[in-house]
Amino acid sequence: QVQMAESGGGLVQTGGSLRVSCAASERIFNTATMGWFRQAPGKEREFVAAINWNGGTTDYADSVKGRFTLSRDNAKNTVYLQMDSLKPEDTAVYYCARSRFISIFRTSDKYDYWGQGTQVTVSS
Asked: What percentage of residues in the chain have a pLDDT greater than 70?
C-alpha cells in the first residue's frame, strides 16, 4: 500500500554528493507536479525544489541553486534529486511530495501526497 517512497539518503562529507529518489504509483505520479521539502531538527519544513508534470519546468530554493538538480522519469514513476557540493546545513530529513496542480508551488499546503522521508547527513 506504499504510494510514495524515498531512498538514497545517507552520510556524506562536506563537498560530497548524494542522489535521492522518490518512486510513486502511476496514479499519483503522472500528470502531477513533484516537489522536495526538507526539515532539520528544531527547524520548520522548507521548500527545496519542484518539477512540473513533463519535466519542462523546475524551481529551486536559493539555498540549493547551482548545487541541486531535479529530474523525473515518467516511465519509471520516479523523480530524482541530485545533490552536489553538499554542506552541513543541508543536513535534514528530505521529503518527496505530489501536487495535483500543473503549476509549481512552494508551499506545503499545495501538496496532497507525502513520502515518509529519507535522512541526509553532511559531516564537517
From this structure: 99
Q: What is the rounded end-to-end Cα distance, in angstroms, of the chain?
A: 38
Average pLDDT over every residue of 15-21: 98
Return the pLDDT at 106: 96
Query: Which residues, 6+ apart, have CB-to-CB distance to 35 below 8 Å?
Result: 47, 48, 49, 50, 51, 96, 97, 98, 99, 104, 105, 111
Tell me how far the alpha carbon of residue 15 is from its chain's centroid: 19
Name the grid cell of 56: 519542462
The owner of cell 518512486 is 23
Give the residue from 21, 25, 18, 17 showing the smallest Cα distance to 7. 21
Q: At a CB cut-off of 8 Å and minimum separation 6, what does 40 contact?
A: 89, 91, 92, 93
Dihedral (Cα; 101, 103, 104, 109), 10-degree rounding: -30
Residue 53 reports pLDDT greater than 90: no
Task: Report the C-alpha gap between 34 and 43 in whole angstroms.
Answer: 22
